[in-house]
Amino acid sequence: MFVKVYEYHIQPEKIEEFFKIQERAGEIYRKYLESHTIYLKKQDNETKWMEISRYRNESEYKKSIRLINEHEEIQHLFSDFQSVLVPGSELVEEDFLQIEEKNSLGR
């Protein structure tokens, strides 16, 4: 699996707006791409978040993201996303390959 990891800082008073933006963007993504996303908030820092999205493979992701980025609404949603970030903070984006996954049952 191909994994995208994002780290960013969200203004605490804009968390609800953030999730509305993510839901609208997700509707567009789902038209082109199957994914699984989790959102993590740091326990001792109310602004720091991590987003982890898993995709079937990198080539499918890259092909689909080109089509997604052509949507005018996605560009507006990204601008809206930037408006909920803590001013002066940066968005960190990294790519990973999932090698193995285990759960407590050993599967």
Keywords:
Alpha-Beta Plaits, 3 helices, globular
Would you give an account of this structure?
The two termini are 17 Å apart. The chain contains 3 helices and 4 strands; from the N terminus they run βαββααβ. It has a 4-stranded antiparallel β-sheet with strand order 2-3-1-4. With 107 residues, the chain is α+β, with helices and mostly antiparallel strands. A hairpin with a 6-residue loop joins strand 2 and strand 3 (48-55). It is globular. The mean pLDDT is 96. Helix 1 packs antiparallel against helix 3. Helix content is 38%, strand content 27%. The protein has one domain (2-97): Alpha-Beta Plaits.
Q: Distance N terminus to C terminus?
A: 17 Å
Question: Roughly what is the average pLDDT, rounded to an integer?
Answer: 96
As a percent range, the share of helical residues equals 25-40%
Enumerate the spans where pLDDT stays under 50 for 5 or more consecutive residues.
none
- Number of DSSP strand runs: 4
Mind telling me the C-alpha Rg?
Answer: 15 Å
Number of domains: 1
Biggest beta sheet summary = 4 strands, antiparallel
Instruction: Name the CATH architecture.
Output: 2-Layer Sandwich
What's the shape?
globular
CATH class: Alpha Beta
Number of helices: 3
